[in-house]
Amino acid sequence: MDKKSSRDGFGKALCELGRLREDVVVVDADVATSTRTEGFRRAFNKRFFNVGIAEQEAVLVASGMALCGELPFVSSFAAFLTTRAYEQIRTCVAMPNLNVKLVGTHGGITVGEDGVTHQMTEDIALMRSLPNMKVFVASDFHSAAVLTLLLGEIQGPAYLRVGREPTPEIYKEDDKDFHPGAAKLLRPGDGVTICACGIMVHEALKAAAILGRQGINAEVLDCYCIKPLAVQQILASIRRTGCCVVAEEHNVIGGLGEAVARVISEEYPVPIRLVGVADRYGQSGTARELQEYYGLTYREIVGASAQVWALRRR
Amino acid sequence: MDKDREKFLAKTALEVRKDVVRTIGVANANHLASSLSVVEILVYLYWEVMRVDPQRPNWEGRDRLVFSKGHACPALYAVLARLGFFGREELWSYKRLGSMLQGHPEYRRTPGIDASSGSLGMGLGIAVGMALSLRLRKSASKVYCLLGDGEFQEGVVWESIMNASHYKLDNLTAIVDVNGCQMEGRIENISNLEPMEEKLEAFGWKVLSCDGHDLKELEKVFTEINMHKGSPTIILARTRPGKGLKKIEEGLLRPTEPVTRLLMEEALRELEAFDKAYFQEGEEQSG
């Protein structure tokens, strides 16, 4: 299978957006090669600003540019952008509801060998708790590209998480049907609802195939928009399946899992299990090793699905 | 600047000062000292330097002011009201629930506010972004950023200082209200910033100093700035916290003291007496 990273999808779409719109500017904190904004820099040098190793300044500059009518994209590693510049994001982007787009690359633990400081499993929680902020997670090259274009269309602040590792293709290139507040139904089923995002979407599909052989017909949703969440789609699914598993490359605290759990517990309580990083930090290792070590594979999804299926609401 | 103009600006500053005292007094709020120290700077900026249109607060061709020391907003509010961005009676609702005039300036809620502020150290970075954007758009608009001196203790200010200089933003002017005070005391006793002039020059800025209460000196530095090309400019405007009120100027009252009704009346009497002595006029009847 052809593997490309979601950060490459972002970089490609950013160039496309730059061609389409004159107001797109990119603010970089000296990581353009890694975040794949390099292509934009080469194509539109005048609209590209490397402010140096200074994430806080990058967000402030973007805020000022948005106030003058530009459409700024700020991109850095998720680990640095969302934490070092959190107050700038909160006070100067989210509060005044400015049209600033934040793209955190190298999300999750599959950053791999660079180790714990560069891995990021708290970004969704941080961004999700900001009023006005929309939060997206790309699951493959193509969804990253479409979501990047979508960021250009929607008004107000938004955060997109993309990853470093090349991942299997999930979407066909002609699939442009992505919207805020929606999720993608990738596999219909009536046994268990699996909500996933990012790299866990592929794992969920793998798990669904195994569950199918065991007689559990899993429904897989790619919840690429964490906020606003696809509440009606998720509720419609769990009303049929009566149980739910959520899988994400994020701390189990504050991520997609808790977002889904809140909706389910308020609207239609069913058994639910969260697959994610168990409130701990990562370490160096290959991406796949880390996925195995921290329990972010199809195996955990299969196990959790079997558990909730046995307890499902009928 | 001719005599009449100077007198007009001085009188305007005095009226703004009275409104600042009233605004803060009615709200029973604090930050009186830091609001009073920026009055002449704001008056000079808005009446002599900046191109703004109170009827069209979002006019694209306007000059921008990022009011980084957001806590001193009563002074900015009083100036904007006087210019007609909104009615003067709004001043009396400062800090109240649902008010147009928030405790710290809020973009979109108040006409004439170009950027939200309140969390210290963020304004200059926003101003850098504005200046970059305006240059990209080949706009003749200028960006001004008013900072407090204490703000320079925030590290991100220096990131912005480096950036503005790197991008040679000569459409950006920062004005520092050097009143020497911060919340818990004198700056030199808490985390010293001097020598500011040498530091900023070393970072590549054109640095000018003046007395921030002297309109003639303000005129001199702003004229010099207009001629300057090739780098951002910064004015170190030396001011006195609580300027115009003896009790604060002489240190009998802590600059951060909340303003009670009694204190407000006493301050207004003092400003009125000054008004009578220098301008031979009584209180303005308006608003």
Please specify the SSE layout and strand pairing:
The complex is a heterodimer of chains A (314) and B (287).
Chain A lengths: L2 E3 H15 L3 E5 L3 H4 L2 H6 L4 E3 L4 H13 L3 E7 H7 L1 H9 L6 E5 L17 H6 L5 E4 L3 H13 L4 E4 L4 E3 L15 E4 L4 E5 L3 H14 L4 E5 L2 E3 L3 H11 L2 E8 L4 H12 L4 E6 L9 H7 L4 H13 L4
Chain B lengths: L2 H25 L4 H6 L1 H11 L14 E4 L5 H11 L39 H14 L6 E6 L6 H12 L5 E7 L2 E2 L2 E2 H4 L5 H7 L3 E6 L3 H13 L5 E6 L7 H4 L11 H19 L8
Parallel strand pairs in B: 1-2, 2-3, 3-7, 6-7
Antiparallel strand pairs in B: 4-5
Helix pairs in contact in B: 1-3, 1-4, 1-11, 3-4, 3-9, 5-6
Q: How many structural domains in the coordinates of chain A?
A: 2
The overall strand count of chain B is: 7
CATH topology of the largest domain in chain A: Rossmann fold
CATH class of chain B: Alpha Beta
Distance between the termini of chain B: 29 Å
Main β-sheet description of chain A = 7 strands, mixed
What is the H level of CATH, i.e. the homologous superfamily of chain B?
A: Thiamin diphosphate (ThDP)-binding fold, Pyr/PP domains
Most extensive interface:
A-B, 30 and 32 residues
* Alpha-beta content class of chain A: alpha/beta
CATH superfamily of the largest domain in chain A: Thiamin diphosphate (ThDP)-binding fold, Pyr/PP domains
- Note the total helix count of chain A: 13
Count of the separate structural domains of chain B: 1
In CATH, what is the class of the largest domain in chain A? Alpha Beta
Order of strands, widest sheet of chain A? 3-2-4-5-7-6-12
Description of the molecule:
- The complex is a heterodimer of chains A (314) and B (287).
- Chain A has helices spanning 6-20, 32-35, 38-43, 55-67, 78-84, 86-94, 123-128, 141-153, 200-213, 231-241, 256-267, 287-293, 298-310, and strands at residues 3-5, 24-28, 48-50, 71-77, 101-105, 134-137, 158-161, 166-168, 184-187, 192-196, 218-222, 225-227, 244-251, 272-277.
- Chain A has two domains: 3-168, Thiamin diphosphate (ThDP)-binding fold, Pyr/PP domains (Rossmann fold, 3-Layer(aba) Sandwich); 184-310, 3-Layer(aba) Sandwich (Rossmann fold), CATH 3.40.50.
- With 314 residues, chain A is an alpha/beta fold.
- Chain A is built from 13 helices and 14 strands.
- The N and C termini of chain A lie far apart (39 Å).
- The mean pLDDT of chain A is 97.
- Chain A is globular, with a radius of gyration of 19 Å.
- Helix content of chain B is 44%, strand content 11%.
- Chain B has a single domain, classed as Rossmann fold (3-Layer(aba) Sandwich).
- In chain B, the strands form two sheets. In chain B, strands 1-2-3-7-6 form a five-stranded parallel beta sheet, sandwiched between helices.
- In chain B, helix 1 (3-27) crosses helix 3, helix 1 (3-27) packs across helix 4 and helix 5 (123-136) runs parallel beside helix 6 (155-166).
- The mean pLDDT of chain B is 94.
- By secondary structure, chain B is of the alpha/beta class.
- Chain B has helices at 3-27, 32-37, 39-49, 73-83, 123-136, 155-166, 187-190, 196-202, 215-227, 246-249, 261-279; strands spanning 64-67, 143-148, 172-178, 181-182, 185-186, 206-211, 233-238.
- Chain B is globular, with a radius of gyration of 18 Å.
